[in-house]
Structure formats: C-alpha cells, structure tokens
C-alpha cells in the first residue's frame, strides 16, 4: 500500500518582540491531548493550505507557490493565536482584530475577502523561509510543511484562540525548549526540535543557513526521528497490516551501548538504511548490546538476520537476540533467540545516561508480547499493544482478548508514563488518554457483541452483520477474528457459553 501523498502546510515560528538575540524567545503551542494525531506535542502555530490561499497577492514575492504558502502561514497564525502578520494591521485595535477573527471563523468573510475589506496586505519580507519538511511515511496524515520565521508585531500578544486543537501557548526561550526536550519533558517532531536547536544558537547572521543546513529541511525524508533523547525511532517499510505501511524499529543508546528493538523489514533497501543508522552509532564508539523483539509477528522480526549478517560482516560479531520465551519458541528454525527475557527483568545499559528498561510481559496481541518501561523518563516501548497509527488486531489463538485487557490495565497502572513508543506511527504524547481510549473502544465492542448474542446471533459472522455496521467489507475477515477474540473472553468471563454456537448465559 502506498502512503498518502503529503499535503501542503505552513507553520510560523514567531519571535517575541525585542527578544534577546543571544537567547531568543519563540511562541510555542501545546496540541490538545485529546487529538488523535500528535496530541500533546509542542509545536508552532500552523496548518494546512486552503484553496483560496492561492488567490492572495503577496508583496515582494514573484513565486506563486511561495505566495500561497505565505498566505497559508499568515492565515493559520491569525486563526490559531490571533496574530495578524499583514501590512495595515498595525493601525487595528485589539477589539478590531478580535472582530476580524470572528468574521473569519464564523465564515462571514473568507480570508481573501477579509484582507481586501480591511485594506491589509501580506508582504513576503515579513516571512523568512527556513525550510520545508515532509512528515515520514509512517504517519496517518502527512504534510509538506513550509516553515517561516516571523517577528511578532510589538502591539500584538499571541494567545491560543478558541481553536480546540490547541491547549495552550507560551513564549519560551528556544534554549529552554531544547533543554526541556533533553530532559524528556516535552515531545516535538523533528523540524520543531531542529528549529529550537538552531534558534538556541542565537539570532546570528548565519541563522537561516543553519536552519537550512540539514537535508531534511529540503524535503529529504526524515529517517531518524528523535522524539526523545537517546531514543531513535526508525520507521522501516514492511508488509504490515494497512493502513500502516511501516514498522518502527527503535534504537536506544547510551554513550557506550545500542539496543535495537524490532528490526522488522524484509526489504533489502530498508535493511541497508537501518544498518547505516546503526553504523553511525557504532562509529561514535558504541556497540550493539542486543537485538530485542517485542513479539513474534513478521513485520517486527523480518530484518533480524540481515542486521546480524551486516554486524558480522562489517564489525566482526553478531549481536545476541533476546525475546520472551514464547516468542523464541515460535521463531525456532527462523531466528535464533539466544536469550529469553522474563517478566520484570531489568535491562541495564552501560555508559551515560543511566538507562534501565524494565521488561513487562504483556500478552494479548501476541502470546509472548513484551513492553519495556524506562522508569527514569516514563517512556514505554509499547510494541503492538498500543500503536500510534491504525488499530491493534487481537487474532486468536495468538491473540487473547482477556490477556489484552489485563495488559492494557497493567500499562495504565504504571505511574509515570510520559510517552508511548508503539510499533507503528508517531510517538504518543498522551499515554493515559490513549490507553483509556483503547479500553473504552474494546468495552464498547464487547457490549455490542454481547447484545447481538442476546438477540440470537450465534456465530462471528452473524454478530458481524448485527454489530459491526461501521466496518468496511474489506475488513470483515479480520473483524470476525476480533469478534471471536471477544467471544472467547466473554466465554471465559461466563457471559456466554458455546453449545452449537455462542449463547447468552443470562448472567
Ligand atoms: Zn503485531
């Protein structure tokens, strides 16, 4: 399956008026934790291009595409934080700006109409282009985002408007934002991290050059995603279950060691890309301490042997492979699992920082499923128990719904979760909301299934027809597997019994 092509978007890095050029402050927003996509992430105001962005005349801009993206940037920063970056806006009062915003949001006026009506003009000189970044293909929504640096006008104070996508916003010194990321306190996407880092170097003459100094700022796909320091998320293309197209391999490292989790791609080009990333870490003097598998599924294990062949050929030694006993036994003949990881076992890294991962035996999606909890930062490698994109399939007998509920509860009970690193999709910055959502979704399904059985449906097919009216026919086979998993749980719970079909026990 081909990932959807990225949509045009723009973001504005607003600089505080009269900010200290050695330690500049920027306006950072926090995305609502309720958002399915990048909920809880820190970001810059911005959003998707709209059709009428191409109708706007932008002064000092000969390129129509750039003009449209400047319009998009100006409109988004106005809609999201109420700052109007247009010539003519300096004479407007706060009240007038508020009423303009209201005109736009209530759709009394379109953006081009509003600019015309109030005699406002966009000027490219207000928007310094600092890069174009493309969302990696592992995300459900992908953007080709133009980043612009802009001075916030002295008389305008940004504030998060009624926009429900954003929770809050604040001026923050770029250097402080970067340190907050280093302390694992905030989650950002790669272009935001790059911007904080570039600005932390000060408003120097070569600032734009520094922004544009990485290939990713020129639409090169980002391979190495550091949502968290010392954690590299490296999505690799796999024949996984749509809509996902990639599986996340994680490289967790200290000054001395690298742990590789789930090198899952069977494709040579992807295996080589991953090997090159591992080589870069090895070149810094680290060694691969182990390859660890969260579970048995092919899209999580298919690159293990290739990575080990590479390590042996290039660096003279294979890495030990570790997994839960049940995973190891299932993989016999395919992959040599050298060591079994027990529940509650601590994986302690050598070197700096001091990283300790606690293995949590969390079956449900697969019999030998493991999650790994970093107690220091509250990060949890959640494997396929919780994913950042797509849904989790519970397919018996490998899958077990009762175990799955228990595993979700166990994950939820961890006290200090800050981020979930799932097997697919972006990191999840709102862990408890996400786990609650998974539990609620499953309970809702269970109720529908039980109601269908009560009304006389006795097979997964009959239940599907009654209870899963929202599922596309293409997914019916998988939905029936999932219904079977729910029925097995209901049977174990004593709510249904199986006599020539499933029956309600009346309990
Ligand atoms: Zn899986």
Question: What's the short version?
Answer:
With 507 residues, the chain is an alpha/beta fold. Helix content is 32%, strand content 22%. α4 (174-182) packs across α5.
The helix-and-strand class reads alpha/beta
Largest sheet: 7 strands, mixed
Low-confidence stretches: none
Shape: globular
Taking Cα atoms only, what radius of gyration do you get, to the nearest Å? 25 Å
Catalogue the ligands: zinc ion
Distance between the termini: 45 Å
In terms of quaternary structure, the protein is single chain
Number of separate strands: 23
Nearest-integer average pLDDT: 94
Widest beta sheet: strand line-up: 10-11-12-13-14-15-16
Please state roughly what percent of the residues sit in beta strands, choosing from under 5%, 5-15%, 15-25%, 25-35%, 35-45% or over 45%.
15-25%
Number of helices: 14
Q: Helix content range of the residues, please?
A: 25-40%
Notable traits:
five-stranded mixed β-sheet, seven-stranded mixed β-sheet, 32% helix, 23 strands, globular, binds zinc ion, 507 residues, alpha/beta
Q: Can you describe what's shown?
A:
Helix 12 packs across helix 13. The protein has 14 helices and 23 strands. 32% of the residues lie in helices and 22% in strands. The chain has helices at 64-81, 94-105, 111-117, 174-182, 190-200, 207-211, 268-283, 298-301, 304-315, 325-330, 401-412, 431-454, 460-467, 476-493; strands at 7-15, 25-31, 42-43, 46-48, 58-59, 122-123, 128-134, 143-151, 166-173, 225-228, 231-237, 246-253, 257-261, 287-292, 321-323, 339-340, 346-348, 356-361, 370-374, 379-383, 419-422, 496-498, 502-504. The mean pLDDT is 94. The protein is α/β, with parallel strands linked by helices. Strand 22 and strand 23 (502-504) form a beta hairpin. The strands form 6 sheets. Strands 10-11-12-13-14-15-16 form a 7-stranded mixed sheet. It has a 5-stranded mixed sheet with strand order 17-18-19-20-21, with no helix packed on it. Bound molecules: zinc ion. Zinc ion (ZN) is lined by residues 295, 297, 365-366, 384.
